Amino acid sequence: MKNHLTDKSSKIMHTRHIKAVLFDLDDTLWPIVPVIRHAETILHAYLETHAPAVTAQFSPDRLREIRARLLKADPAYQVDLLRLRHAVLTEAFHACDADKRLITPALEMFQRARNAVTPYEDVVPGLTSLALRLKVGSISNGAADLEEIGMAHHFHYSIAAHQSGCAKPEPAIFLRACEALGVLPAEAVYVGDDPELDVEGAQKAGLLGVWMVRSGLESGKALPGHIKPDAICASLIELEEWITAHI
Question: Is 3.30.470.20 the CATH classification of the domain at 4-31+120-245?
């Protein structure tokens, strides 16, 4: 996929000095849907062994239904997805009168599997190259642990929604990251796969918003007509080429 740059973006870029690039994580730097499904399978297998009464009544699909219902009832869960999963298991364990002390080790096992991600081939060399010229950061609504994944050293600063108390597309989380990196929003580019959360959210906070569209991404989202990314890229290689052409 070739980079696509809007006329509006071209004019803006000539008046900006880009000092930082920030990334979404899930489905931007690695595919997440198969990882989550595998983690949920491991979680259910653990429960089958240690809390069979729970799995007898609650299939993985039913647990997902509870998750969706709780999230709809209380959008605050969007800020802390691990807290949401804990609430799901708490409800299921309570319904079965199961030992709730098993919830913590069950979620620890889930989280280990959730962090067993495989970055796209361009990610590590791309982050390494970008860090030679720019400050590199990450902003995520998810629960990825960059230390456990082994990629924390690629970022000068990283923040997740559960650490910030707010989630994308709220401007506050973008502004907090820019402040931590010591750059103005106008000096930063944000890259992500979700048009509303990542592109529009970043632009409303004053950053440039780049839409990352990975080839064959299972959870790929359509681009709403009112959202105009400053660029569209399929890899960090294309992203770096675009940044290089405009700084």
Answer: no
